[in-house]
Amino acid sequence: MVGMIAFLSRLLFRLAEIRKPGPFFIVMVTAMGSSTQIPLSQLPATSLAVAFGILIAIGVACCLPSSTQALPAFSFKEQLNHDPAALLDALFYGAILFFAVYLSQSFHLHNPYWLTVSCAAILQGDNLRHMLARNNQRIFGTTIGLIIAALLLSLPLPTIVMILMITLFFVTVEFFVKRNYAVANFFSTPMALMLAMLAKQQYLYSLVQYRFLGIVLGSLLGLLAAWLMTTVLRFYNRAFHLHETFEQDSD
């Protein structure tokens, strides 16, 4: 399921020339949903909470200033003829994220979507050098973030305080994610661990251990996938005399 949705979203977003983050959040939500086990009796309440969150997000988005310029009309068939490498890119993207899910399930990781999301985050880079930098920054930022999380979660924090800190961390991550990716991970890691503790009441040691393992494995897998994709596209360019790169556009 994750691989299929990743393939379709990657293909459609590239053909529609929608800028980043593109399919990343679609993949993230799908990976989280596929690894979450919810009792049938709790499904209505959980669905209602998700719907309420979506409505809040839509309401906030409507309050933000946006462009009134009409979107240009385009044909997916024409776009695919113009950009044939999009299909190859989407196939590879879906396949590597399918493998990431398989790997996380095989290792029986708690919160296995951390590995998949980390892999998808690395593949957001514009080129191989950018992805290598993101890989190093993500691992370094996660290490510092785990130390911060261990210090905070060792304190007897009330639930309301944890919710307020999660909100503050989220705002901080959004501020730094385009300015300094490593610093953004200082705060995304404690935010993720606090959410996990509130949702499942897991032990801190196991959370820190599995978070670090998932981030490192996912980042390295994403970097390896980027290198393979770059190599494949290099041969593809030589065979068809094209000038494709791993990403069609860069931000």
In short:
By secondary structure, this protein is an all-alpha fold. It has one domain (about 1-35, about 85-240). It has ten helices and no strands.
Architecture overview:
- There is one protein chain.
- With 251 residues, this protein is mostly helical.
- The protein has one domain.
- Helices cover 74% and strands 0% of the residues.
- The chain is built from ten helices and no strands.
- It has helices at 2-15, 24-34, 43-63, 76-82, 85-106, 113-122, 128-153, 159-176, 181-200, 204-240.
- Helix 1 packs antiparallel against helix 5.
- The longest helix has 37 residues, at 204-240.
- It is found in: Membrane.
- The chain crosses the membrane at residues 46-64, 85-107, 144-170, 182-200, 212-236.
- This is Integral membrane bound transporter domain-containing protein.
- Pfam families: FUSC_2.
Keywords:
74% helix, 10 helices, mainly alpha, 251 residues
Number of strands: 0
Mean pLDDT: 78
Radius of gyration, in angstroms, nearest whole number: 19 Å
Pattern of helices and strands: HHHHHHHHHH
Shape: globular
Determine the number of helices (DSSP H or I, runs of at least 4 residues): 10
Distance from N terminus to C terminus (CA atoms, Å) equals 29 Å
**Helix proportion of residues, in percent?**
over 70%
> Uncertain spans, ≥5 residues at pLDDT below 50?
244-251
Largest sheet: none
- Classify the secondary structure makeup into a structural class: mainly alpha
Total domains: 1
Strand content: under 5%
